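Here's what a typical entry looks like (Carboxypeptidase regulatory-like domain-containing protein):
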Amino acid sequence: MDQSFAGTERAVTDYRRGATSGPTSFILQGRLEGLLGPDFPEPLAGARVRLYRPTDVPEVTAARAAALPKDTLAVLTDEQVAAKAGNLLAEGLLDEDGRFAITISADRGYGGAAFEIDVYCGTVPHLPPRPRPHGPVQFALTTLQPRWRVREETAIAAFDYTVPARFWCGIRTLFGGWTVYGTVSAGALNTPVPNVRVRAFDVDWLQNDALGSDLTNGAGRYRIDYATDDFTPTIFPFLQIEFVSGPDLYFRVETAGGTALLTEPPSRGRAADRENVGHCKRVDLHLDDAPTDGGDLDQQPITSFFQVGRYQATTGIDSDPLTGNGRTLHVNPALADRAFFATLPLRGVLGQHMPFTTDPLEYRFEFAEYALGSTNEAALSFAPVPIAAIGETQIGVIQLFDPSALDPDDILTELRVLVNGPPGPPPPNADYVNADIVGGWIRVPQNNNINKASGGLFVANTGLLANVASTALATFETIDCSALQAGDAAQSEGRTVPREHFFAIRMRVRRWAVAPSEIAAGRVRRMAISNPTYTNITRHPEWSPTPAFSDIAVTVVDLAELSGGAGCTPINATLTPQFTAAHPNLGAVSMWVEGGPTPAKPLNVPNPSPDDRFGTATPNGWVLTDLAPCSYLVQLFAEVRVTTGEAEPSDRHDYIGFCR
């Protein structure tokens, strides 16, 4: 499960244990990926997840639900797919990261039982544009009995799975897909080598076929995808001398500019470990020595800002200045429609140089707030994000290679590169250095030789550019709740009414200290930020009241029957739960009574306004006398739909006890 979503999930009583009416919709969300080999997964991007009612007898369905998915995987025939079409409950598309969210309406007669999960593949990821030997493929994954969690009228469950390599590579084989992947390392310590090009070839009778190439990433990994046609033809279309079914692989590794670092002879492809390889083949390549420069100019990454946490600036945020609401967009409903708050991780790509030059690069972020009610982007006035508003941020590491070190652990070491790290010079043997900041501009380290004696090699391997405290971008509202009583409107009695604020954020880069060289490097055109502070909150005031405190939202609950210091008085005639829950981005609000020998009892929660819910909750299909004599809790949970971009706050909570 996505851990950020797990942070917002609360453990509630299963609706089947006592609610008089079940949810009106069920949402299954999760992520699917397939293994090419150990530690080499790929998201099942573009596939479709299909959910079916089981057709087996209950005993068989229960057995399949208890089985491991690896024991139930099976490719389905067209006849089998057609036969179960009438039992389709719902289906959904997997996004580029393999994530999905599928809604099943209770109107379809579904009430939370087990269902079959199939995966439909119209193609497979990274398949070269060639004629396909096979049409769409659908395979059975598992039978799942979800563990539903209820939020008001919606039940949510999660399912993540990694398809084993043997089965997933078999699926890729049906589409004629071939993949060779691995790592490039160097030296006695097998240090990963980034930013080098790997070229793969097939040994043939009259010609050697170039299968493709890839540039290694920061972990030294590469992946080359090719098709059967890339290695079966010879130069004579009528003459096919290659009798074996798979290619015979050999490789060349070179700098991004073309300088050879490793050149294998074609005869290497006739060795037993390289001849007639399968559709998914791992080949790790080793260099005697690591490259000693920082890469070629034409392959230096171009610095750019394009993401806030997990959300892409253009596709993950509703950021159009005229029509967008500035909140998040996501296939997972739990991560969508959220404003931003607290510290924002601004992400992107960081290069050492200005584009296509050797000029050292420095960068900063700028922001502008839209006037209340305005969508006029042209009227924005940008200011630098104060350096003090940037929290400690690791933008990369400096790798130091010292083959003469006596301790093997010291042959390759790393220093973290921090923006706004601990003040002052690093102490002896510190594992970090601070990036230079001059005039509000962050200078990218220019270390470009991995040898320790030459200063090491800077590697921007985190994708993080700055952790920006959004609270420093404006004066956000403070709401004094010292006079607030549970059941009252938070936006009454003269209290400040909080709201969303809208900002544009952009990145600027330039050559060190050369103002005319400044250029744009990415932006978010409009984003909603919500940072109210509710002060002097006291929870369950009639029963062990808490000391006054501050929070990002207010949630308080009380019982009218306990007012006036009657906190220990049994309640027998009426039950009047009074509550208040407020925030500009308030989500689901749930209340129920739990305790004693009876199942949890849901409460109806009034909804006078979407961001300020208050009043008296009422029993949903039950009466007070349904509760056996015992002690009980009235529970209140309120969702706050904000995000840092990577984490979401837990539901705000209050409760009060009573005796029946």
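The two ends are 39 Å apart (CA to CA).

More examples are in the samples folder.
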